[in-house]
Automatic annotation (TrEMBL):
Pfam families reported in the protein's UniProt record: PhzC-PhzF
Keyword Ligase: no
Organism (species): Herrania umbratica
PANTHER family the UniProt entry points to: PHENAZINE BIOSYNTHESIS PROTEIN (PTHR13774), PHENAZINE BIOSYNTHESIS-LIKE DOMAIN-CONTAINING PROTEIN (PTHR13774:SF17)
Official protein name in the record: Uncharacterized protein LOC110413994 isoform X1
Highest taxon listed in the record's lineage: Eukaryota
Active site: E49
InterPro entries with a match to the protein in the record: Phenazine_PhzF-like
Cellular-component GO terms for this entry: cytoplasm
MF term (GO), any: isomerase activity
Length: 305
């Protein structure tokens, strides 16, 4: 029997402008596919993440539930690299379901490798007035944000002789703090300011040789910017030299900056070339982070294989 065609959308997440934020391919599956096919399609799209949605048949009509899987374009050590948590692709998935009429609910549940994740439709996130936003049309039709309910990502002290190597990988940047996230084993490297983060010139080959899976760089932003902190994220070991906007990284950044700034609500700026804006709330009692952002659909089509 021939395979059914697969509808897909490419969505820019954590932005209200096309060609900004972080793009993800969202594929709607009527049946499960094998991992070789999933990985091949992810490589074909060649975006930082491709995600696959399969409706769970016994899910409540009031709270629809979908199986959600994320893949990067590459496989590691001849095994399939399936991402355990991906914020922007989850937001892109929820936005696709909300805007295409595939759900009649303001709440969606996703069954993932990180457990059940919830997405809610909410009011639009307001960007600081000094951040330019290019309007392309769709944004005026769908003026809402998506709120993701994610687990916090704990971080531990980093006691290592490799601080100088990490500084070298960040082109000699002055480091004021380093943490190691668990269980993802990323390094959270704090610089003196958001300006230092923005102006950073990373040495990707050196980052690839550093301990840990990836490096999250962050710094406090000045009050007049309208942001609380800025960040950039580098994951060259997984074929992503710099991730445009990284929702999951903010599950570690929110607890860190909550301790430093004495607050639980943040407006965060990811200072990649594409850039992105996130609104965050840390629920300390339940160890959850609510990530809010907008999205734009830039492409749709059909996979014929």
């Amino acid at each position: 029997m021939a395979r059914t065609s697969v509808k897909y959308y490419v969505v820019d997440a954590f932005t209200e402008s096309a060609f900004k934020g972080n793009p993800a391919a969202v594929c709607l599956l009527e049946e499960d596919r094998d991992e070789q096919w999933l990985q091949a399609v992810a490589a074909e799209f060649n975006l930082s993440e491709t995600c696959y949605l399969t409706r769970i048949s016994d899910s409540s009509t009031h709270t629809p539930r979908f199986r959600l899987r994320w893949f990067t374009p590459v496989s590691e050590l001849k095994t399939f690299w399936q991402v355990k948590l991906c914020g922007h692709a989850t937001l892109a998935s929820a936005y696709t379901l909300f805007t295409t009429g595939l759900v009649n609910s303001n709440i969606i549940e996703f069954d993932t490798l990180s457990g059940i994740l919830t997405a809610k439709k909410g009011p639009a996130v307001k960007a600081p007035t000094d951040v330019p936003q290019i309007q392309y049309g769709e944004e005026h039709q769908h003026c809402f944000s998506v709120e993701l309910d994610f687990p916090t990502v704990p971080s531990t002290e980093f006691n290592s002789t490799e601080v100088s190597a990490i500084s070298k990988a960040l082109n000699g940047a002055a480091i004021i703090d380093i943490k190691r996230t668990t269980p993802f084993d990323d390094l959270l490297v704090v610089l003196s300011s958001a300006k230092s983060v923005i102006e950073l010139q990373p040495q990707i080959d050196d980052i690839r040789r550093c301990t840990g899976e990836g490096i999250i760089v962050s710094g406090a932003a000045p009050p007049e910017s309208g942001f609380d902190f800025a960040s950039r994220c580098f994951f060259p070991k997984y074929g992503i030299n710099e991730d445009p906007v990284t929702g999951s990284a903010h599950c570690a950044l929110a607890p860190y900056w909550s301790q430093k700034l004495g607050k639980c609500d943040f407006i965060a700026y990811q200072a990649s070339a594409r850039s992105g804006i996130l609104s965050l709330h840390l629920d300390e009692n339940n160890q959850r982070v609510l990530l809010r952002g907008k999205a734009v659909t830039v492409m749709e089509g059909t996979l014929m294989v």
